[in-house]
């Protein structure tokens, strides 16, 4: 697997004693003030979605994934706390499936803006945003200049939006754990299903693991998906194939993606 040694990859390894919890919401204001005084002045804003994930996964898949990824990334980076996950995202292309809740892009941007301004006001010097839901990537990329302007020059705001690198890492991880990398499609597929088997095994309906649209989408199909929704490409909402999923694949995907994002944040923050 690529990216196996945090120090070798230039990640931040802190010698400071970490707080009892990395989760901001579980701390008191005195706890937060104390850790800021010891240079725990970096914070992650995880983002997810509440949307369909085929007939076999819960709507909370992306939010649950973001929760778990944030802990791994914060640990790799060091001196980093975790803000409450923004659970709902931009999921307009999933609205054909009941239960999906979608934010307008300006609503999502306003949430991220208010998170960043609040955290910067308290003294956090570096703010990392990532989304376990690809549908948020375009909005994150577009809002980044305004977020940086809002917090001022003394605070660094970084966002991860490289969808293709994420999918490549999943394919490598799936193959390394004994699965079929061609089953990775990016939504309710072998990677996401395996992640939920690892994170919340009771939430996975194993008797309903199915394939959806398998294989690379053409430009025409991609454009149709964003315009007309996922249902225009996959009737069951799956992009990829969920069959063959396992806890081992899920654990490998989680660790690999965390290393990918932590390495990217570390490299960008050092430039």
TrEMBL record:
Which InterPro entries does this UniProt record tie to the protein?
Creatininase-like_sf (IPR024087), Creatininase/forma_Hydrolase (IPR003785)
What Pfam families does its record include? Creatininase
Report if keyword Metal-binding is assigned.
Answer: yes
Q: Which Gene3D superfamilies match?
A: Creatininase
Q: What cofactor is needed?
A: Zn(2+)
Could you tell me the EC number(s) of this protein? Answer: 3.5.2.10
Give this protein's Gene Ontology molecular function annotations. Answer: creatininase activity
**Alphabetically ordered keywords of this record:** Hydrolase, Metal-binding, Zinc
- Family stated for the protein in its record: Belongs to the creatininase superfamily.
Q: Identify this protein by name.
A: Creatinine amidohydrolase
């Amino acid at each position: 697997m690529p990216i196996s040694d945090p120090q070798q990859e230039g990640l931040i390894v802190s010698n400071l004693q970490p707080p009892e919890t990395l989760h901001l919401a579980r701390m008191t204001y005195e706890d937060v003030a104390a850790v800021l005084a010891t240079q725990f002045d970096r914070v992650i804003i995880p983002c997810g979605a509440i949307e369909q994930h085929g007939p076999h996964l819960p709507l909370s898949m992306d939010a649950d994934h973001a929760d778990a990824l944030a802990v791994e990334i914060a640990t790799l980076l060091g001196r980093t706390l975790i803000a409450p996950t923004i659970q709902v995202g931009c999921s307009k292309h999933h609205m054909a499936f009941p239960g999906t809740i979608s934010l307008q892009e300006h609503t999502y941007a306003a949430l991220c803006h208010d998170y960043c301004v609040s955290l910067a006001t308290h003294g956090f010097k570096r703010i990392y945003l990532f989304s376990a839901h690809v549908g948020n990537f375009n909005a994150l990329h577009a809002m980044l200049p305004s977020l940086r302007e809002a917090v001022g020059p003394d605070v660094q705001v970084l966002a991860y939006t490289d969808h293709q690198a994420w999918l490549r890492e999943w394919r490598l991880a799936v193959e390394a754990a004994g699965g079929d990398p061609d089953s990775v499609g990016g939504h309710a597929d072998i990677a996401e299903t395996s992640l939920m088997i690892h994170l919340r095994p009771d939430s996975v309906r194993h008797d309903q693991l199915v394939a959806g649209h398998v294989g690379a989408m053409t430009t025409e199909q991609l454009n149709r998906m964003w315009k007309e929704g996922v249902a225009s490409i996959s009737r069951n909402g799956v992009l990829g194939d969920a069959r063959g999923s396992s806890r081992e694949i899920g654990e490998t995907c989680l660790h690999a993606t965390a290393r990918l994002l932590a390495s990217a944040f570390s490299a960008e923050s050092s430039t």
